[in-house]
């Protein structure tokens, strides 16, 4: 019985199978023991995600989903008076929406581990270099400080709901030079190194949920485990 | 209805979500329109794969699988009198096994496009550099010439069965320097460039099967398609 791990989120999830992406790393890590399923929606905030969560996972099996990551907030934290205001979601609503999303997931998969992930930090210089939609104001449409409030709210929702949490906003900022080592030129999306860090944090969280490689069985015999002199018997039912 | 694309094969499939891997490229390409499902089994030949094919795909949904790639032969082509003889499968049996695997897939998913892929070419110098299981004979356990016979047999099975075929053995060798640009130091597995070439060939085959990005719908509204002044209506059911 090969379980699935579902990745639900915004562009940081949608792009997670790009070069060096955290989703691809996960699929490679679990290549013989779990399916990693991508449900990433660029630009989405929790308001939109909570409206579509049921549809996003409708085609996935009712059983066999062992874990779900939920990564939203980067778009919710868009400032209400800047170029990307249509993505903004007020902080109290963000928390309600996160709870609503988790409720959908827990109803569908009662035994799955739900892992909340905060939005990553923002490098405002990058946002000015890559202004949203060709905005000419010279002002970043998101700031790290405001995104941090959403990150803390995400941690709070997880703690209140008894869910696992990866505070990648705080974690990344513990490393000097996080702005350029973990974030791309746009100050928002992850570099391969940033993806690697997030991948490792997800692996730790999955281990905590008893879903480590050591615990999950390989779905068929490993070549290294078979006796070369009597190989076929390992593959018979 | 988000379809699935299943990748069934040996190590060249199992490793396809590694750095720059063809499976990860596919999952990224279809991030909003299809699930890419990994069923790769390092070291397996068609004898073992035909015995486990039913079990390998047992947890996958009966519907919704739109395409399956089948990539075996590199291990079958191990020479019967060299270090990796336990993986060897005689050529006539290889063809029978491929047909048996395809029969399992077509029975389970009658409307899915089955795409056979030949084994890639082999650089024997790499095999001597990385001898199988510490073999000290100084002789490669596989040769490009013999692997080519399996590739041609694979093409033959596909033509006789009316299945799509990617002859990656021939395709790669059209490029001068294929030995080092497409194959890793071990002369057997793919570099990121080799993975890229295989990815592109799979995309062409999927397009031929009417499964291009242009044809498959995005599974939920694209952020770029919505009206910022009335966003929520795009997400309501």
From TrEMBL, chains A, B:
<keyword id="KW-0378">Hydrolase</keyword>
<dbReference type="InterPro" id="IPR013830">
    <property type="entry name" value="SGNH_hydro"/>
</dbReference>
<dbReference type="InterPro" id="IPR045136">
    <property type="entry name" value="Iah1-like"/>
</dbReference>
<comment type="similarity">
    <text>Belongs to the 'GDSL' lipolytic enzyme family.</text>
</comment>
<dbReference type="InterPro" id="IPR036514">
    <property type="entry name" value="SGNH_hydro_sf"/>
</dbReference>
<feature type="domain" description="SGNH hydrolase-type esterase">
    <location>
        <begin position="7"/>
        <end position="197"/>
    </location>
</feature>
<dbReference type="GO" id="GO:0016787">
    <property type="term" value="F:hydrolase activity"/>
</dbReference>
<protein>
    <recommendedName>
        <fullName>SGNH hydrolase-type esterase domain-containing protein</fullName>
    </recommendedName>
</protein>
<dbReference type="Pfam" id="PF13472">
    <property type="entry name" value="Lipase_GDSL_2"/>
</dbReference>
């Amino acid at each position: 019985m090969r379980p699935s791990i579902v990745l639900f989120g915004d562009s940081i999830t949608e792009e997670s199978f790009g070069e060096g992406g955290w989703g691809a790393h996960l699929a490679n890590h679990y290549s013989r023991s779990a399916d990693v399923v991508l449900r990433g929606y660029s630009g989405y905030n929790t308001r939109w995600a909570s409206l579509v969560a049921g549809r996003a996972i409708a085609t996935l099996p009712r059983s066999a989903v062992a874990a779900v990551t939920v990564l939203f907030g980067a778009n919710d934290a868009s400032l209400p008076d800047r170029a990307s205001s249509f993505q903004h979601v007020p902080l109290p609503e963000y928390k309600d929406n996160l709870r609503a999303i988790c409720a959908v997931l827990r109803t569908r998969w009662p035994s799955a581990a739900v892992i909340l992930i905060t939005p990553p930090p923002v490098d405002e210089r990058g946002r000015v270099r890559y202004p949203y939609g060709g905005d000419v104001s010279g002002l970043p449409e998101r700031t790290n400080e405001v995104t941090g409030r959403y990150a803390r709210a995400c941690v709070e929702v997880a703690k209140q709901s008894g869910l696992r949490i990866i505070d990648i906003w705080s974690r990344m900022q513990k490393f000097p030079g996080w702005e350029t080592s973990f974030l791309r030129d746009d100050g928002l999306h992850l570099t391969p190194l940033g993806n690697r860090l997030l991948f490792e944090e997800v692996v730790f969280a999955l281990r905590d949920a008893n879903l480590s490689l050591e615990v999950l069985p390989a779905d068929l015999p490993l070549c290294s485990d078979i006796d070369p002199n009597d190989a076929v018997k390992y593959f018979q039912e």
